[in-house]
Amino acid sequence: METHVTFYWGKTGEILFSGWPGAGRSLFSYTVALFFVFLLAFTVEWLSHARLTASAANDVAAGMVQTAMYGVRVGLAFVVMLAVMSFNVGVLLAAVAGYSVGFLLYGSRVFSGSKINPSLDPSVSDLPPLNC
Description:
Blueprint: H1 27-49, H2 59-84, H3 89-106
C-alpha cells in the first residue's frame, strides 16, 4: 500500500485502520468512511457545547463527569486528526464539514432561540473550548 505524504483525492487510501475503508475500495465504503469522520467531528463539537451535568449535582461527581467527558472529547478530536493525517482531501472536507455543522447547530447564534441551543452563555457548556 502506498503511503501519501501530500494531499490527494481518491477512494484508494486507508483511513485510521489498515485495510479500511475496505479491500474493494468501492465508492460506497469510501462514502461510509467519510460519513464516519463527519460524525466523529460533529460529536466533538456537540461535546464542546453540551450541558452534561445538573447544576445541583455533587461537585465531586460533577467534576468527575466533566473530566471523563473532556477525556472522551479530546480522544475523539485526536481520532479525527489522525483520520485527516491520511492526507485524503475527502476526509479533510468531511472533518471540516462535521465541525462546521456541529458548530452551526450547537455553538452559533442561528439556533439560539431553539431547543438545540437554549443559551449562548459560556457557562452553559460543561467543558472548556478546545484551543489551538
